[in-house]
Amino acid sequence: xxxxxxxxxxxxxxxxxxxxxxxxxxxxxxxxxxxxxxxxxxxxxxxxxxxxxxxxxxxxxxxxxxxxxxxxxxxxxxxxxxxxxxxxxxxxxxxxxxxxxxxxxxxxxxxxxxxxxxxxxxxxxxxxxxxxxxxxxxxxxxxxxxxxxxxxxxxxxxxxxxxxxxxxxxxxxxxxxxxxxxxxxxxxxxxxxxxxxxxxxxxxxxxxxxxxxxxxxxxxxxxxxxxxxxxxxxxxxxxxxxxxxxxxxxxxxxxxxxxxxxxxxxxxxxxxxxxxxxxxxxxxxxxxxxxxxxxxxxxxxxxxxxxxxxxxxxxxxxxxxxxxxxxxxxxxxxxxxxxxxxxxxxxxxxxxxxxxxxxxxxxxxxxxxxxxxxxxxxxxxxxxxxxxxxxxxxxxxxxxxxxxxxxxxxxxxxxxxxxxxxxxxxxxxxxxxxxxxxxxxxxxxxxxxxxxxxxxxxxxxxxxxxxxxxxxxxxxxxxxxxxxxxxxxxxxxxxxxxxxxxxxxxxxxxxxxxxxxxxxxxxxxxxxxxxxxxxxxxxxxxxxxxxxxxxxxxxxxxxxxxxxxxxxxxxxxxxxxxxxxxxxxxxxxxxxxxxxxxxxxxxxxxxxxxxxxxxxxxxxxxxxxxxxxxxxxxxxxxxxxxxx
Length: 644
What we know:
Strand content: 5-15%
Strand order of the largest sheet: 3-1-4-5-8-9-12-11-10
CATH topology of the largest domain: pyruvate-formate lyase- activating enzyme
Number of strands: 24
Low-confidence stretches: 1-5, 617-644
Number of domains: 2
Number of helices: 25
Helix content: 25-40%
Mean pLDDT: 93
């Protein structure tokens, strides 16, 4: 246990945390609970952990709330019964990650660790935790409403492909037996649900809340809400029969998820209706500030003191999340499906307030681990004319070109970085989140102004710990178009600018590019070319991510169906283990055990030209070689500040 935790236990009463035991409830003098939250994660009272945000929000509405973190689902289910029935509802989440991504690698191998559990120990939550917890609650308390949310529920809100079972699954609302699903970042719908219930409106009548999913029987019919226009997509049963119809659905789902004025989506499941109400508008600065300014202790619950550190917390306890959302629209990424395409930025005042709280933590050593977000350099970026954004339904603001209405100035970030640097208790504030290099590259972003180069200089001189992470993802023009990423030539231009700044200030920073193998529309020959181009640029790749199909992405829909959901054209996708492993293997050309296989494979493909470039004795100058280290899984460990 860290010194800080010991210090805070002595100084802070247990009631500073939300209760997770009956003794803590008794200390507050409560005889009844209004809301009980069930979570697949250990309880960490920090704004980077969803259950803490939801819990503090419910508390701020004047309700009595308790949390049941990581309940035992294998015994007599006493953890689910220990607090009895809540007055209003049970809230259920699997935690900060999709359970199956948390449990399994891209090759479906069971992981031996869990970064959201004390001691980094696995086995404290079931597969498909959100669904399993909800089913248990409905069996024990069939009359109590169950509200599910979080990333696992959000991405599984409609018919989806499940990679781990290799099956097409219905909405998790159907399979979990829950009463309502909140998708996306849930503060706004949750507050409205609570406010209506406090007025006495029964839970089952709350079918008009934006950003929720409900199910109605044939007899109940579709609620008539004139404020929304409806669109019906192919039924779950039709999707099971026709992969093409499943692919067609996704274009509608993605576009409606990213509109400012979306339609209500209707999907039939058997004789029932699944109803996805449109999302709330992007949170305003004041709204997102209120969420981050709630009275978090910023600490794990003291109950875990003897069980060891929680790795996900240790990674982010000195980090600052500046914004939410991502307008990149990458075809393999789930950020916009959950957090939204439009950026919700905190105020400078709120960010600096959190910095002050962080630097005053007793075990703070002067280093902020991250000033960022899902993509570090999208803070404060939005359309010049909101009316144009209101009419837009494209999934990306920067592909195939940077939108002419998008303000890509980096000045607001520079200002905050400098103010954080000026704090006498901060030795260094790192930008640990991935940076969108395309926003900084003039060959791609024609609207680049002076702030882009100033931003790069500021980051490289003051906010990088030896390595800058960027994500070109691939080298094949065809694959990159599918990924909604810029042509690889733009990455080369970015590297030139990176090298110039390094030389100008006599720095020794390394550029760390990320790549994906086994992605839809990527063939074996493309991976060989990727290996050649990166080798010739001086990169020797050590770890490369294998594509992991996760619900609610273009790439996953294509992986399952074989069709691109926008063009409806058939697309090659490596699906077998042999195909996926072969693509991966090319990137490790420098290993002796791969050389003969590479030579044989490229000869068979009649690409002897690549053999010479990849396996020739003359290699790049070792002094200029960079060993790039890559994340094995983009959704680990936890803060979901995913590099782009």
